[in-house]
Amino acid sequence: MSRSAPALRPYLPDDAPLLAAIFAASIMDLTGDDYSEAQQEAWAMAADDEAAFGKKLAGELTLIATLQGAPVGFASLKGADLIDMLYVHPSAVGQGVGSALCDALEKIASARGTKTLKVDASDTALEFFRKRGYVAQQRNSVTINDEWLANTTMQKQLDGVATPGGHA
């Protein structure tokens, strides 16, 4: 059976509970090498209030990636130039979901005239963004639910020319 590429669709309000579950599973299952259990739990708690989480997603340009029709990841663009969230369910890692979401946000930002796209990448996501041409700018410490977590602000120059075949 050949693996199908992820399909993308816009966020819908009914998606909030499922995306909250993807968010928590991604954090708890994928970030253990970089963050303590207390840090993971504090971070994942950001989705405990599904209404507030849904409101945040609805307030940004949020895309959902699906495999065989089932949501397996999501990403959001905050404002014109910040990838605010990019989360993939652990069961779908390595299937092009994160890349498809990131490609789409880069194309949208570029089409809107954005020259530089930024992301505050978790230590777990650093290599993913580095491979995509993002360059580390600064280290940050953020407090989430009384736990300190480190991340890195990274940025990528967008050339503003989207070419067929997915290479901007």
UniProtKB/TrEMBL annotation:
Catalytic class of the enzyme: transferase
Molecular function GO labels: acyltransferase activity, transferring groups other than amino-acyl groups
A Pfam entry, by short name: Acetyltransf_10
Keyword Zinc-finger tagged: no
CDD domains documented for this protein: NAT_SF
EC number: 2.3.1.-
Keywords in alphabetical order: Acyltransferase, Transferase
Keyword Nucleotide-binding among UniProt keywords: no
Domain N-acetyltransferase: 6-159
Stored PANTHER family: ACETYLTRANSFERASE, ACETYLTRANSFERASE (GNAT) FAMILY PROTEIN
The protein, known as: Acetyltransferase
Organism of this sequence: Bradyrhizobium elkanii
